[in-house]
Amino acid sequence: MSASASDRLADIPLDWPGLWLHMLRARDGSPSAQLSHCPERGWMVDEAIGARASALFDLYKPVLDARVRQRQLRSRAPWVVAQLGQSLDGFVATATGDSYYVNGAHCLLHLHRLRALCDAVLVGAGTVATDNPQLTTRRVPGPQPVRVVMDPAARLDGLSRVFRDGQAPTLWVCDSHHAAQARSRLGQAPGRAEVVGVDGLLATDATGAYHPQRAVAALAERGLRLLFVEGGGITVSRFFTAGALDRLHLVVAPVLIGSGRRGLQAPAHAVMADCPRPKARTLALGPDMLWDLELRTS
Ligand SMILES: NC(=O)c1ccc[n+]([C@@H]2O[C@H](COP(=O)([O-])OP(=O)(O)OC[C@H]3O[C@@H](n4cnc5c(N)ncnc54)[C@H](OP(=O)(O)O)[C@@H]3O)[C@@H](O)[C@H]2O)c1
Predict the structure, then answer these.
(1) 292 and 245 Cβ atoms separated by less than 8 Å
(2) Element (H or E) spanning 92, and its range?
(3) Using one digit for the tens of pLDDT, what is the confidence trace for 205-222?
(4) Which of 1, 4, 121, 168 makes the best surface tag, with the fewest CB within 10 Å?
């Protein structure tokens, strides 16, 4: 991390690292001195904790609460959170795909925390092709989620790092018509990757669109019920439009890209009164502003 990036972490409160460790215990269902759970209000943080740490905690509370509901069998329904870091003018990357870095160091840590709290981290094929990401939790203490690559038409070559590095179990999700092709590309890869063919994932209208909920259901059948959709813009927008997201963290950076890979794209409306206005709150993450959007009440 560069000196300027670490400077921007100055507003991480002193009590935050300890609280994070308590949150990891809460992830596994264990209350602690700082975090307690009650059926009506879910996880609650000790009032003695600083206001900034408490505001950061509120970002992750919905994930922890969903985990309790699922553990107590009150709901076996999947719960999906997405994030997208975009510029003031609505792009996630330049036209060449360069996205290092739209957002600051704070946002990177936030991504790794969300990964650690969820069962699986999911990205689109374009992100894998462009960034060759690792999708690990190497920047924070915490468990490693299953890595999921959404590639309905199996356009990837199977050579990317996630499929080969063996750092975590990895699922390559395709429409079942393309699964054999993906398996042959994976071959005897030394990693821990597996192809998951989903029936009817691709729409039949040849637009290239797909049904995110079918992928979510297939992952839930494998016990992956808390999903983190990490990008890119097309994938998050498809999940958003399909109504497959419970929560969206849209992180706006004070940068202007001009043109390139689009950020969030929502369905069009002719009349302002019809435009959705999700319940929202904001939290500054270093120089960036995170919009925490509640898309579905639990
Ligand atoms: N700022 C952030 O939060 C963030 C997060 C993640 C990624 N990113 C950036 O977002 C960009 C990628 O996002 P995106 O919206 O373009 O795509 P994406 O959502 O990651 O992936 C979906 C798109 O990738 C296409 N695709 C499939 N295989 C591909 C291949 N082999 N090469 C290139 N594209 C392929 C898909 O086309 P089909 O539907 O036709 O298969 C689909 O349009 C990258 O530049 C990445 O750095 C930013």
Answers:
(1) no
(2) strand 91-93
(3) 777 789 999 999 999 999
(4) 4
In a domain, 262, yes or no: yes
Beta-bridged to residue 247, according to DSSP, are 81, 294
Q: Is 12 a member of any domain?
A: no
Residue 169 domain flag = yes
- Residue nearest atom 33 in ligand 1 by C-alpha distance: 126
* Cα–Cα dist 117/43, whole Å: 14
Domain total of the chain: 1
Distance CA 4, CA 137 (A): 22
Whether residue 232 is preceded by a cis peptide bond, meaning omega within 30 degrees of 0, is yes
* CATH number for the domain that contains residue 107: 3.40.430.10
List, in order, residues 6 or more apart from 193 with CB less than 8 Å away: 162, 163, 164, 169, 170, 171, 172, 186
In whole angstroms, what is the distance from residue 238 CA to residue 17 CA?
34
Cβ count within 10 A of residue 90: 16
* Ligand 1, CB cutoff 6 Å, lining residues: 84-85, 92-93, 97, 99, 102, 123-127, 129-131, 153, 155-156, 208, 230-235, 261
- Torsion angles phi and psi, residue 229, rounded to 5: -90, 110
**What pTM, to 2 d.p., does this model score?**
0.96
Enclosing domain of residue 93: 76-294
**Domain contains 178:** yes
* 247-275 pLDDT, tens digit each: 999 999 999 999 999 999 999 999 999 99
Nearest-10 crossing angle of helices 51-71, 105-117: 20
